[in-house]
Write a structure and sequence with these properties.
The chain is mainly α and 491 residues long.
Length: 491
C-alpha cells in the first residue's frame, strides 16, 4: 500500500484526470474496481491494505486484492507512458542506458562478466536506437576498458565507428554545459564566470567543430551552437549569438531532451535581454517559468530576469505583482527574500515613492553579503541614488567613500563601470549645495549608456543588479541642472 500511496500522491492534476478518463472508457467490473481503489487512495480514505480490502471486498487482504493493486500500478504507468513527449522519451532512454551501463560495471567488477556483457548490450541498443551520441561514446569506452579485444559489432552487430572513439570530448561538452553554463542552481554564478571560462569554451567549440565535420549529429550540433552562442554573447556579438540560439531552438524536438530545449530557450531569452528586446525576452522567460501542466514556478533566477524585463519595459504593475508573490512565499525566510525586498524598493523608486524605496532598501541589507554577479555593488549603488534623490548628503558622502574603498579591492566584471559611476556620484555629492556649481557628466553618460551592439566593457549589463541604469540617471540629473541653472542650496 505504501508504494501505491507514494505513486498516487506524486501525480499531478492532469495525470489524475487522464487516469480517471482511462478507467471511464473501460466500463467493466475489473476496471471499475481499480478505479474505486484509486479514488480511495487518492482521497486518503484508506491507509493500509487491511482498510482497503475491508472496503472493497469486506474481508482481509487476499490474492485478489494483491492482484488488484498490481494491476492498478501497471495501469498508472501505462497512462503516464502513453502521454510522454518525444523529448522526455529520449531523456528516459538516456537514463535507462546509463543505468544499464552502471549495472554492467558493478557486475563486471564482481567477476560476473557474462551478465555484465548482457546488460552492456541492452545499454548499447538503447544508445544506437535513440542516436545518443554521448552514450555511444561511453559504451565504446566501456568496451575498451572492461572487454578488451571485443567489438561493438560482436555486441550489437553495429560497425565500430573509429571516428566516434575520438569524440570523448563530447562527454566533457555535455557535462560542462550542464554544470558551468546552464546550471540553474548556480545560474548567476556561471554567468559571472563565463568571461573567465571563455578559452575553455573556445577549445570545446574547436573540438566540436572537428567532430561535426567528421560525423555530424544533432547532438553535436546542439552543443556546438550552444557554446558558440555563449562565446559570441561574452564578446558582445549579441545579434549573432541570438541567430545561433534561434538555430538551436529550431532543431528537431526529437533530437533534444526537455532540459536541452529549456537551455536553448533560455539562451534566446538572454540574447533578447542583451539586445533590449524586453517583450520578446519576457515571453521566453514566462514560457520557461510556468510548466504547462502544473503552472508552478520552476526556478527563481528565471523569475529574477523576468522582473528585469518588466522593469525595463516600464511595466511596473507586473513587476510589483511578481515581487509581492515571491516576498509572500519567502515570509520567515530572510535568506530567500532579501533580493526581492531590494527589487521592491527599486519599483517604489520608479513609481515615485522615494520614502518607501528608502525604507525598503534598509530591509534588504543582506544584499551586502551577496557578491554573486556584483549583487552587493548594485545594492550600494542603488542606495546612493536614493540618498542623493532624498538629499541626504552627509550619509551619501559616508556611503560613497565606503563604496569607492570597496571598489579598490574588487576586480570582477563590471567593477570598472562601478568605479566610473562612483566618481560621477562623488562629484554630485561633493558639490551639493554650492550655488551655481555643477560638473557636467557628458563623458560618463556616453560611456555608461546601454550598448546592445558591441562588447564595450563599460556598457550597462541588463541582467546585472544595476537596476537603475547609471547613464539614464545621470542624463536625467544633467537635464535637471540645465533646467534649474544651478544646484539648489540645501541646508
Amino acid at each position: 500500500m505504501e508504494r501505491l500511496k507514494e505513486v498516487i500522491g506524486a501525480l499531478g492534476r492532469a495525470d489524475i484526470i487522464k487516469i480517471r478518463t482511462y478507467y471511464k472508457n473501460r466500463n467493466d467490473s475489473q476496471h471499475s474496481k481499480r478505479l474505486e481503489l484509486f479514488e480511495l487512495v487518492h482521497r486518503g480514505k484508506v491507509c493500509t491494505d487491511l482498510d482497503a480490502a475491508q472496503m472493497l471486498y469486506g474481508g482481509k487482504p487476499n490474492s485478489a486484492f494483491s492482484h488488484l493493486k498490481s494491476r492498478l500500478l501497471d495501469d498508472i504507468m501505462d497512462v503516464m507512458l502513453a502521454n510522454i513527449s518525444d523529448g522526455d522519451m529520449v531523456e528516459a532512454s538516456r537514463t535507462a542506458c546509463r543505468k544499464k551501463m552502471l549495472l554492467s560495471e558493478i557486475l563486471v567488477r564482481k567477476g560476473i562478466k557474462t551478465e555484465g556483457w548482457r546488460n552492456l548490450k541492452t545499454a548499447a541498443q538503447l544508445a544506437w536506437k535513440n542516436h545518443l551520441s554521448t552514450e555511444q561514446v561511453m559504451v565504446l569506452e566501456f568496451i575498451s576498458e572492461f572487454f578488451p579485444g571485443e567489438t561493438l559489432e560482436q555486441l550489437i552487430g553495429e560497425k565500430d565507428p573509429h571516428d566516434l572513439r575520438q569524440m570523448a570530448h563530447l562527454l566533457v561538452a555535455r557535462q560542462y554545459l550542464k554544470t558551468f553554463v546552464f546550471n540553474r542552481a548556480a545560474l548567476y554564478e556561471n554567468l559571472a564566470m563565463l568571461s573567465e571560462r571563455k578559452e575553455v569554451i573556445r577549445d570545446l567549440v574547436n573540438d566540436l567543430s572537428g567532430a561535426m565535420s567528421s560525423r555530424p549529429t544533432a547532438e553535436i550540433r546542439y552543443y556546438l551552437l550552444s557554446f558558440s552562442s555563449c562565446i559570441l554573447r561574452v564578446e558582445g556579438e549579441y545579434q549573432k549569438a541570438l541567430q545561433q540560439a534561434i538555430e538551436v531552438d529550431n532543431m528537431d524536438p526529437e533530437s533534444l531532451s526537455h532540459s536541452g530545449r529549456q537551455n536553448g530557450s533560455f539562451n534566446i531569452a538572454l540574447c533578447y535581454l542583451y539586445t533590449g528586446q524586453w517583450a520578446e525576452a519576457s515571453a521566453r522567460l514566462q514560457s520557461l517559468i510556468y510548466d504547462e501542466m502544473k503552472g508552478e514556478p520552476v526556478t527563481e533566477v528565471w523569475s529574477e530576469l523576468l522582473f528585469r524585463t518588466y522593469l525595463y519595459a516600464r511595466q511596473y504593475e507586473e513587476a510589483e505583482a511578481l515581487t509581492e508573490k515571491y516576498l509572500l512565499n519567502a515570509v520567515g525566510q530572510t535568506e530567500k527574500g532579501y533580493r526581492w525586498m531590494f527589487y521592491r524598493s527599486v519599483i517604489h523608486y520608479r513609481k515615485g515613492h522615494l520614502q518607501a524605496a528608502l525604507l525598503g532598501i534598509q530591509k534588504a541589507t543582506c544584499m551586502l553579503d551577496d557578491r554573486v554577479y556584483g549583487a552587493d555593488l548594485g545594492y550600494r549603488y542603488t542606495e546612493l541614488i536614493l540618498l542623493i534623490e532624498s538629499r541626504k548628503w552627509d550619509l551619501a558622502q559616508i556611503r560613497i567613500d565606503a563604496f569607492q574603498q570597496l571598489l579598490k579591492r574588487r576586480d570582477e566584471p563590471g567593477t570598472q563601470r562601478y568605479r566610473l559611476i562612483a566618481r560621477a556620484l562623488a562629484s554630485i555629492v561633493r558639490t551639493a549645495g554650492i550655488p551655481d556649481h555643477r560638473e557636467p557628466h557628458g563623458r560618463q553618460i556616453t560611456l555608461l549608456t546601454f550598448d546592445g551592439k558591441s562588447g564595450n566593457s563599460l556598457a550597462w549589463d541588463p541582467i546585472a543588479f544595476e537596476l537603475i541604469p547609471a547613464g539614464e540617471w545621470l542624463e536625467g540629473h544633467e537635464h535637471s541642472l540645465n533646467r534649474n541653472k544651478r544646484l539648489p542650496v540645501f541646508g
